[in-house]
Amino acid sequence: MTVSPYTLHCQSTECQARCGEIATLHGPIQTPVFMPVGTQASVKAMTPENLVEVGAQIILGNTYHLYLRPGHELIRSFGGLHRFMHWERPILTDSGGFQIFSLQDLAKITEEGASFRSHLDGSRLFLSPEDAVHVQEALGSDIMMALDTCIPYPASRDEAAKATALTARWARRCREAQTDTGQHLFGIVQGGMYADMRLAAIEQLVEIGFDGYALGGLSVGEPKELMYELLAATASHLPATHARYLMGVGTPEDLVEGVSQGVDMFDCVMPTRNARNGMLFTSQGRVVIKNSCFQHDQRPLDPTCGCYTCRHYSRAYLRHLFQSREILAYQLNSIHNLHYYCSLMTGMRNAIREDRFLAFRRDFYEQRTVPVSAH
Amino acid sequence: MTVSPYTLHCQSTECQARCGEIATLHGPIQTPVFMPVGTQASVKAMTPENLVEVGAQIILGNTYHLYLRPGHELIRSFGGLHRFMHWERPILTDSGGFQIFSLQDLAKITEEGASFRSHLDGSRLFLSPEDAVHVQEALGSDIMMALDTCIPYPASRDEAAKATALTARWARRCREAQTDTGQHLFGIVQGGMYADMRLAAIEQLVEIGFDGYALGGLSVGEPKELMYELLAATASHLPATHARYLMGVGTPEDLVEGVSQGVDMFDCVMPTRNARNGMLFTSQGRVVIKNSCFQHDQRPLDPTCGCYTCRHYSRAYLRHLFQSREILAYQLNSIHNLHYYCSLMTGMRNAIREDRFLAFRRDFYEQRTVPVSAH
Fold it and tell me: What ipTM describes this predicted complex?
């Protein structure tokens, strides 16, 4: 029915990994791609110019947070989130579903939608699938997500089945509520930890027809092996004609595994949140910058890294800033971690184009066997 | 004896205001100048590139803080503060005296020096005038300050006289302790709120001979009128051949008044601290960004301002970031406030060069009679 905004450029002959492009109102996105999270209309501690410099092609905004503050009507009055926050590249907004469930115990789900309380002032609010789409239309994101219900881990088969069925009915209402704005709408596959239920959910969503498909409800506390199993069992069943998005994932290792299973899009707070906690990603693994072994270390965090932080600052200075709780610590650490994530994706795209993804993956793991220390 | 690093370029015919230049190891500084404060080897929420963009010519580091953490020997191992913090323009370091007195009640002053406790771990420490110079030599600042004793407000004449005499003896020891590094050393005029005592202190310091002279112990809680009185009674008695520095001052109004009395250098945490508290400076006066009148305001903070923040962001967005406690709020607000302070100094320098300082000063106050609001 609708034309897919996704164009496949090349497919690994070794695994499911693939390179492509997603067309959006704010230009194309090269996939596989990692999307930094800008929950409240700001990627924490980063200017938009910092984001461009680290190579971010698209960022994510959280509908739940923006709906509560500053409100979607305010953002609409600016012509959307892009002008409000001074970001000219694409934006994806989630539907608000995940936050409604994860930020409170008192969310009440009915056929009609989700009742919840504001985490800011306790006021009672209600979000229907139609509301979720209209709010995202006001935000003007390039990619909107259908409202889904989240399934806790663990959940019984019956519980998961009910939530998955409701998600499918909501997905149809979201698609029907959409007006002609040129924004994309992605459907979200639920199904808990039941692979067969997820495969059925994919069929239902494809029957409705979306501009892309996301795997939701993973990385919610289940063992890593289980997530990888479900990924292997489901990702390649998402239509190859459309973009595939693994929501809320994950570690650098998760990104490499996700790409090898054919995933095109990822988002996670990990690079920015860990940056603020002093945990930094390098090609050799993770660095806890407050460790005393870095006290006198004049070397850059990662001598092979070309980011602003590694070009100009030493481990000793980064440690000093972190120990002193200087705001610059959050800025420099966030720049480095997001540069790491975006560069990892660039490396994977290049490896796929040259059909050497498995070699790339092997190198990625081998570099991590040498721990980062002062010598 | 020594050649003054200060060169007078022009003198207002209307008042004491003057333009000049201070030569330093890291290049010349155009005066009058405002120095952003980078207490812990970072001007809070600002990258060095941000500082250059707002027009900062020189920044200040706090010897007390850097001595405690990360330690001057660590900074020496980097060849000084400049390389440690990636700042290539001049740096002035204070002597540590003010912090020793202001951060704790238990500082004990003897002829030999100051005993105090670390505010970080409570350890007992001692700083002599000689130590203060040697620590600053390790930091590699362009302008060092002599160790002074601070006089609380109010203080009896006797109390003030004793502290002022000790400051003079310490000043001589600082000058004698200095080695041949090319760094400048400034003397600090104390004397409490007693103008005659300050004039005598100036004579003593000039007799020792410093590379510049500072007025210390002002803006310590005394009424504003008293500070202006003392300024008028003393600033023009500082040698015209040397740079004059009014320490820890102040508001935009204070800078204008200080310049009109012939002051060349200022430093204050106000622009950065107020930025983090949501108080912003504009040509029309102060703005409290959280005020609800800015909620829907699409205009830049100050439509006449050319800073990064005003070029790209609205009052509504700045309010949203501040209400949401986003780190970007601190970054954007700090950029704006420091740009305001540095531009104010540029405006004053231009006005002095064109010998229209009093007209500039009149305009400065007149613009502030129109309050900043949404309409």
Answer: 0.97
